[in-house]
């Protein structure tokens, strides 16, 4: 796994202390450092809420003070690549498909609530729902592996066109499907 995406960081927050005047304030150093293109999502009474205002974060903002956890969510689109293994009749001729997905956060609160920090297992799980695809190449003998690879390529494109991955809070689009075979040029 590379850098986490879309949830870059999660933190449990201790209760915000009261000042000498009895006002609760949170030390902003307790929160993840915001990077360009990110937003903070606070767990407030079990509901995940994106910070409702723009501008500098203040230590006495209600959701900052009462939050029990915070997540840093990357809002910039990111390409996520997955490697999908395909079995052949001869294990030496096994190959894989590398699929690139462009992923963009639509709802930061939804992805924070799910704790989505690695999309690859979800995307691979979606591809794996088609068991026939994983074993399609076993129907071909070793001399016909390039043809098997083309069949797998077409099936992946068709599956993703008919049933694209649906992960709440994200827009996901297929960018590229590449078959990787040793020594065949595919």
Element layout with pairings:
Layout: E1 7-12, E2 38-44, E3 47-50, H1 62-66, E4 69-74, E5 78-86, E6 95-105, H2 108-114, H3 120-128, H4 131-135, H5 145-162, E7 170-180
Antiparallel strand pairs: 1-4, 2-3, 2-4, 5-6, 6-7
Write up what this structure looks like.
The protein has 186 residues and is an alpha+beta fold. The chain folds into two domains: 7-74, no CATH class; 78-180. Helix content is 24%, strand content 29%. The strands form two sheets. It has a four-stranded antiparallel β-sheet. It has a three-stranded antiparallel β-sheet with strand order 5-6-7. The protein is rod-shaped. The two termini are 25 Å apart.
What keyword list fits this structure?
186 residues, alpha+beta, 2 domains, 4-stranded antiparallel sheet, 5 helices, 7 strands, Band 7 domain-containing protein
Please outline the major beta sheet: 4 strands, antiparallel
Can you count the beta strands? 7
Share of helix, binned: 10-25%
Strand percent estimate:
25-35%
Overall shape: rod-shaped
Rounded to an integer in angstroms, the radius of gyration calculated over CA atoms is 22 Å
**Uncertain spans:** none
Tell me the number of structural domains. 2
Name the quaternary structure: single chain
The chain-level mean pLDDT equals 90
Discrete helix count? 5
Distance between the termini: 25 Å
Give the SSE string. Answer: EEEHEEEHHHHE
Strand order of the largest sheet: 1-4-2-3
- What structural category arises from helix and sheet content? alpha+beta
Protein name: Band 7 domain-containing protein
């Amino acid at each position: 796994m590379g850098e986490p995406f879309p949830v870059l960081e999660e933190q449990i927050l201790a209760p915000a202390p009261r000042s000498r005047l009895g006002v609760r304030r949170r030390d902003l150093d307790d929160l993840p450092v915001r990077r360009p293109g990110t937003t903070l999502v606070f767990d407030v009474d079990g509901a995940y809420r994106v910070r409702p205002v723009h501008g500098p974060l203040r230590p006495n903002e209600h959701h900052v003070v009462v939050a029990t956890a915070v997540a840093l969510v990357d809002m910039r689109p990111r390409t996520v690549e997955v490697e999908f293994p395909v079995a052949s009749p001869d294990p030496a001729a096994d190959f894989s498909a590398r699929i690139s997905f462009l992923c963009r956060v639509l709802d930061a609160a939804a992805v924070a609530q799910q704790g989505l920090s690695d999309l690859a297992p979800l995307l691979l799980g979606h591809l794996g729902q088609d068991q026939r695809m994983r074993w399609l190449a076993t129907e071909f003998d070793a001399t016909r592996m390039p043809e098997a690879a083309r069949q797998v390529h077409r099936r992946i494109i068709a599956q993703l066109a008919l049933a694209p991955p649906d992960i709440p809070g994200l827009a996901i689009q297929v960018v590229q499907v590449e078959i990787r075979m040793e020594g065949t040029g595919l």
